[in-house]
Amino acid sequence: MVLAVFALFFVVPLVWVLFAMTKSGGELQRTAAFAPGSLSGLAGNWAQLSSFQDGAVTGWFTNSVVYSAGALVLTLVISIPAGYALALTEFRGRKLLLVMTLVVMLMPSTALVLPVFLEMNQVGLIGSPLAVILPFSFYPYGVYLTFIYYSTSIPSSLLEAARLDGCNEIQVFWRVALPLATPVVALVGFFSFVQNWNNYFLPFVMLPSSDRYPMQVGLSTLLSSTPAFNPSAAGSQSVQLPALALATVVSVLPVLVVFLFSQRFLVAGMTAGGTKE
Amino acid sequence: MTAPTDLRAAALPQAGRRPARRPQPRLSKAVGYLFTGPYVLFALAFGIGPAVYAVLLSFSAPDGDFAGVSNYARVLDDFRFIPAVVHVGLYLALWLVSLLVFVVLLTLMVHAISVRWLSGALRLAYYLPGALAGASSVLLWLFMLNPSASPAAWLLRLMGFESFASTIAPDGLPIIFTLIAFWSGAGGWIVVMYGALNNIPHEVMEAARIDGCGPVQMALKIQLPLLRKWIAYMAVLSLAGGTQIFVEPTMLSQASNGQVPNDYSINQLAYLYAFNIRDFNASAAIAVMLLVVALALSAIFVWRGGLFETEDV
Question: Where in the numbering of this chain does the ABC transmembrane type-1 domain appear (chain B) (predicted)?
Answer without folding.
Answer: 90-301
